[in-house]
């Protein structure tokens, strides 16, 4: 990351788009997960986010501008069976983002997060329990009567990184089609 700042001259936006694929870390009831499993999830979801933010902050502070957008998850708000460690890491990302937002706003840096629900993205279609029967159930529960897309999430991230969101910091925008409303 240090090399990126030196090579490009500026780092204006960090979009923390992290996650794991169902084949990499299995979805298991928490009682069946061993410590290595959830430590791996925490490292990928939470520790990586903290490290990336730590790398870009000196550049953003020095230039007096920056946007940090982290993709959390609706699981951070409502939980989800089989991914307790993931939900805990995402809640950690949200609390971390709020804390950093309070610290760096005076430097012209906005820190926000988006909370997408499951979508038609390849990651969610590969997860156990997301076959056609469950996809249909998800679509029916979705207040917009369609599954979300990667474009839906990307548009919100682009907004949060834009000048139009200049007075938005320490906030979350849910991208769930109304699945959750909090």
Structural class of the secondary structure composition? alpha/beta
Number of domains: 1
Beta strand count = 4
User: What is the count of helical runs?
Assistant: 7
**Helical proportion, percent range:** 40-55%
CATH H level, superfamily name: NAD(P)-binding Rossmann-like Domain
Strand order of the largest sheet: 1-2-3-4
Radius of gyration based on Cα positions: 17 Å
CATH topology: Rossmann fold
Mean pLDDT: 78
Strand content: 5-15%
> End-to-end span in angstroms?
34 Å
CATH architecture classification name: 3-Layer(aba) Sandwich
**What's the story with the biggest beta sheet?**
4 strands, parallel
Detailed description of the structure:
This protein has helices spanning 2-8, 35-63, 75-78, 84-104, 122-125, 132-141, 150-161; strands spanning 13-16, 66-71, 109-116, 172-175. With 182 residues, the chain is of the alpha/beta class. The chain has one domain (2-175): NAD(P)-binding Rossmann-like Domain (Rossmann fold, 3-Layer(aba) Sandwich). The chain has a four-stranded parallel β-sheet, sandwiched between helices. β1, α2 and β2 (66-71) form a beta-alpha-beta unit. The N and C termini lie far apart (34 Å). Residues 121-142 have low confidence and may be disordered.
């Amino acid at each position: 990351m240090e090399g990126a700042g030196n090579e490009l001259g500026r780092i204006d936006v960090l979009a923390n788009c992290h996650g794991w694929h169902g084949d990499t870390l299995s979805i298991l009831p928490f009682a069946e997960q061993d410590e290595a499993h959830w430590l791996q999830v925490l490292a990928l979801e939470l520790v990586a986010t903290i490290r990336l933010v730590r790398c870009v902050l000196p550049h953003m502070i020095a230039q007096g501008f920056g946007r940090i957008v982290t993709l959390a998850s609706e699981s951070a708000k409502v939980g989800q069976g089989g991914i307790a460690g993931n939900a805990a890491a995402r809640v950690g990302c949200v609390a971390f983002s709020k804390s950093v937002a309070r610290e760096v706003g005076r430097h012209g840096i906005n820190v926000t997060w988006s909370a997408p629900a499951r979508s038609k993205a390849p990651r969610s279609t590969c997860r156990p329990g997301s076959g056609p029967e469950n996809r249909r159930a998800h679509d029916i529960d979705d207040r917009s009567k369609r599954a979300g897309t990667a474009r839906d999430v990307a548009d919100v991230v682009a907004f949060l990184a834009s000048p139009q969101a200049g007075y938005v910091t320490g906030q979350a925008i849910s991208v769930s089609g109304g699945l959750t409303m909090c």
